[in-house]
Amino acid sequence: xxxxxxxxxPWGYELRFARAERYAGKVLFIRAGSQLSLQYxxxxxxxxxxxxxxxxxxxxxxxxxxxxxxxxGQARRVRPRTVHRFRAVTDCLLFEVSTPxxxxxxRLEDDFGxxxxxxxxxxxxx
Length: 126
Hints:
Layout: E1 5-9, E2 12-19, E3 24-30, E4 38-40, E5 46-52, E6 54-59, E7 66-71, E8 75-78, E9 84-88, E10 92-98, E11 106-109
Antiparallel strand pairs: 1-2, 2-3, 3-10, 4-11, 5-8, 5-10, 6-7, 6-9
């Protein structure tokens, strides 16, 4: 990938600056008051660094849900099959690096009615 690809989203936009066989890199801008889908990934493993803003990282589904408030300068990893969502308290700019499966998204809730929304949380391996 030699060019930065901008992908407009209902909550802001993504700038995809890297996509190789083993990794991907994006910059996400999330408008204050917006949130991404409550989602999980079957295979995608991602980490992010919050460059600017205040972000609530929602983890879990239903009664198990918890919220972690993040400020600029903090980072987190989201492993595969972890239910999560980003909720922007203020305008946020974050850098995300991940494995390359960018289409690996299972939506449980979505404010914008996007396709792929399901109410089934991931099954845990026993």
